[in-house]
Amino acid sequence: MTSIGSDSNKEEFKEKLLEKHKEAKLVRRIVLISTIVIFLIIGSVITFGYLYIKSALEPVDPKDKKPIEVTIPIGSSSRKIASILEENKVIKDDKVFRYYVKFKNESGFMAGDYKLNQSMTFDEIIASLKSGRILQEAVFSLTLPEGKQLVEITKILSEKTGYTEEELMTQLNDRKFLEDLMAKYPTVLTDEIFQEGIRYPLEGYLYPATYSYYKEKPSIEELITPMLEKTEEIFLVYQEEMIEKDMSVHQLLTFASLIEEEATQKTDREKIASVFYNRLDQGMKLQTDPTVLYSLGEHKDRVLYDDLEVESPYNTYVITGIPVGPIANAGEMSIKATINPGETDYLYFLAAKDGEVHYAKTLDEHNRLKAKYITNQD
């Protein structure tokens, strides 16, 4: 004999089970729809990006061969050229053009007057820009050697331009001037240049190279703009490696400046970089003499023991880690060594009088090398 209460409970249980089943089905449907929507959004973004770049790489109008007169001023950087081409509607996107030029490793663009049109491909535009003619000779050129500090650079600029060293240094350390430069070069100049203890915000940022100018006396901004553009150009090449090493431009320039100041003509910079990295990994101070001299603000033929104790965020005998900022401008060899150091077990190195660099794994070994190549030859 079946109980009425029992039948009622069974029905109630079935109803709850059915309700839960409906809820679970609804949840699965919501999850499925949400997943599809997310994938559609991601797919749309990727598709849009692909189509945008694909479109930007194509001629503005393949059928329009109407000549467009374009003037490329003397001394124009690839950034400036791309901007001029976009303004004249010869290309669709200046950034895509710049990256294309970088990817193809194109250079040697000539100043001049060109007749381009909207049907031209990137390759045709590039070929045309490389066939132009120079409108005038450079008024003057100047060379910034590797390993130069800002004080030395201002002296070079002063000798070439007539600006006093004080005028140059005042402008190059002016906060408003620097913030305007940061707006132009946000991937290179960041707030790190204003960290507490930084002596000169642009120290290490003016790339060592030869620069040509086409005015008798360009403005100070016009003087250093090509140097910052060159720095930006170099670091675009190493962008991926910097991300992998979790290093900012400021940190990389700082590290590279130490290698630059320690390097000699015979030096294997990758080995020096490995020594610095090995010491950092073991929590050791870098203890590199050029940072002592920079902290002192003077050049000395020999660093004394008392000098090692100077309190400064640059002195690697006092601080742990790399200095607060670069101590000089570094060339690409030192930048490469920072990105791709050698693989060694060395913790010490010293340069002998003949420029030869000797490496050691232990302090005892280092001291023996020091006695042989430094102390006994004094």
Protein architecture, described:
The record marks 262 as: Important for catalytic activity. Belongs to the transglycosylase MltG family. It is a single chain. 51% of the residues lie in helices and 7% in strands. The model has no long low-confidence stretch (mean pLDDT 86). The chain has 378 residues and is mainly alpha-helical. The strands form three sheets. The chain has a two-stranded antiparallel ribbon. Strands 3-4 form a two-stranded antiparallel ribbon. Strands 5-6 form a two-stranded antiparallel ribbon. It contains 14 helices and six strands. Helix 5 crosses helix 6 (165-172) and helix 11 (269-281) packs across helix 13. The protein folds into two domains: 40-135, Endolytic murein transglycosylase (Dna Ligase, domain 1), CATH 3.30.1490; 137-344, no CATH class. The termini are far apart.
Task: Put the structure in a nutshell.
It is found in: Cell membrane. The chain crosses the membrane at residues 30-53. This protein has helices at residues 4-57, 78-87, 94-103, 122-129, 150-161, 165-172, 175-184, 220-237, 239-245, 249-262, 269-281, 289-296, 332-339, 363-373, and strands spanning 68-72, 112-116, 140-143, 210-213, 348-351, 357-360.
